[in-house]
Amino acid sequence: MDIKPKEVESVKIIGNLYDSDVKLVKTMGGFYLAIGKKKKNSRKSEALAAGSHQAIVAHQLSKEYGSDFQPAVFKSEQDQIEQVEDKSSYLPRTSIEKGVELYTLSKSNKIEFVLCRRGITIGKYDTEAKDKTLIIKNNYFNSEVEADRQTAEALSKAMKDKAYELGLSEIKKA
After folding, report:
1. Cα–Cα distance between 122 and 50 in angstroms, integer?
2. Looking at residue 131, what is its pLDDT?
3. Domain parsing of the chain, residue ranges
4. Class of 83-173 per CATH?
């Protein structure tokens, strides 16, 4: 994959792997790519992970490289990457076999429930925890998403779990 300088929106350091910086490249289209050294004795950097959300890319790095990947410590809450929870086990086996994953991304009182396939967001609920309620602000689903009952139940279960974890008593639309 060749990314030209005019296609890059931003670059920032998100951590360290094998004593070298791991950089997160955000393209103009909103695609994220982690670049760094794959092995201790590598001379050049290469793609380590990619996806449609920076937190999911960082999560992939942590899963792939374990304690060898050290996430960066950010000075302000605004710069921090969301906390990621993998809820893919809630999905039906057929979705998992197709490469679909379900993540919960939390930062402050904002929570996203994201469906991805091969690093690309195919569905998402944006929510906010406020006054003992998980408020669904908006949602997006790619036309490729198969709107089946089991996937809807998986998303519902992820929301209920997060609401329970945060001590919220209800879930409602804005």
Report:
1. 15
2. 92
3. 5-71, 83-173
4. alpha beta
